[in-house]
Amino acid sequence: MLQLFLREPACDENNGNDDSYKRWRSLLDELESVIWSLMSSGGQSEARLWLCNSLSGISSINSRRQCDLFVNLLRSKPIKWHLASQLLQLIFENQPQKVGPIIAKKSYKLENFFKGNPRRILQWFSNFAGSGDFEHGKGAKALSQFAFVNRDICWEELEWKGKHGQSPAMVATKPHYFLDLDVQRTVENFLEYVPEFWSSNEFSESLKDGDILFIDTKYFVNWFTDLMYKEELEELWDVIEEFLMEQSFSFLCHHLLIILEEQDFHLFLDLIPKYLKPKSESIASGNASDWLEIVLSKYRGSSTIDQLLLLNAVTNQARQLLRLVREEGSEEEKEKIRNLVFQICDSSSYTNDLAPLMEEVSKRKPLEIHNKEDCGSDYDGRSSWSPKHKKRRKHKRKRKRKLDSAESYEDELVDFSLTNNRRDLQSKAGDWLLSTDGYSTTWSS
Fold first, then answer.
1. 112 and 175 within one domain
2. What is the value of pTM for the model shown?
3. Which end of the chain has fewer CB atoms within 10 angstroms, the N or the C?
4. Which residues, at least 6 apart from 427, have a Cβ–Cβ distance to it below 8 Å?
5. What's the pLDDT tens digit per position in 208-233?
6. Where is this region: Disordered (predicted)?
7. Cβ contacts of residue 389 below 8 Å, gap of 6+?
């Protein structure tokens, strides 16, 4: 059983147990070091993903505040190219019609988009309707409408696949004749000889719903990041703010935080306390995000990101941490963890303290934060624990067994009665028990 302090507990120097306390704390520090070594062995990417998942559960940030939070992050220096690209990608995928009007107003810039690129030309302009279809596709419709309205200046630029061309009168009565148009050569002619088309109402109208974004999304992401940061287009920033307000905080965290550079992620953690709704430090709910909000509200960059990652893993991602230890830990590391746990439980100076604490924890919800100074449960140096809130609920637990080809995993009931001997934590010879957030499992050596 790991005891977690959100700040270092105060110890009465005159209580006669100072040496025992220092040894007990030293063992906890050593256990922390082993766990952190396992967590950081893979570059901390998994631990950071756990923290992002926990952050996504925060519910006290309203839509206006979450918008301000991410906009401030986007506008901070240095320029957040990766974050902006990911956000634009989300807008394109979910609400392309929001940015379509911006493209339509700058339709003349798409000359370079199509120039020298037959694939893009054919994807956008070759969707003419047959005799049984209702109407041409957007690009084909723009091309045909402009050709009819401006036939005196551009009809001769239309290239046909047959031996002879088609007259405007003939095509007007039989629109399916456009199926015989050589689209690639025609558009290439328009690029060279009909510049009026690219700023025309017909072409602009075809772009307003944003469907053209899917012809080459990467191209438009690059273009729009330039509009954000180089041209500082306010219309685009308005679209971004509207999108940020419409999405849930959970959605934004899951899709945006994972791509942040380390420095930018630190900045996000520094910014978020300003946007959290003030919350009482007395929390009696099972919502794991409550304690995280309290911790973040006091986070001012004084704690390192490593400490926050470790704190979140131990208290809020216990099952994932246990899986990581099982899968990534060496036999030597597992043995070291087991020995440290036994030594911590056998600390004679705290024999009378751990038992009532663990018995009380066994009756609580998986996560319960009490109204204590600095958000923590303080050890008062006089062998007493005094939480202000107690909720006792009886929970029935069923033993579950999952089998696969390699090993079996078993969830067992935990007996927290430690009055006689803490080594009773062992459910059977050769096994030891790790229990966090109400979830427990035996671990065979």
1. yes
2. 0.71
3. C
4. 412, 433, 442
5. 999 999 999 999 999 999 999 999 99
6. 369-409
7. 282, 284, 368, 370, 371
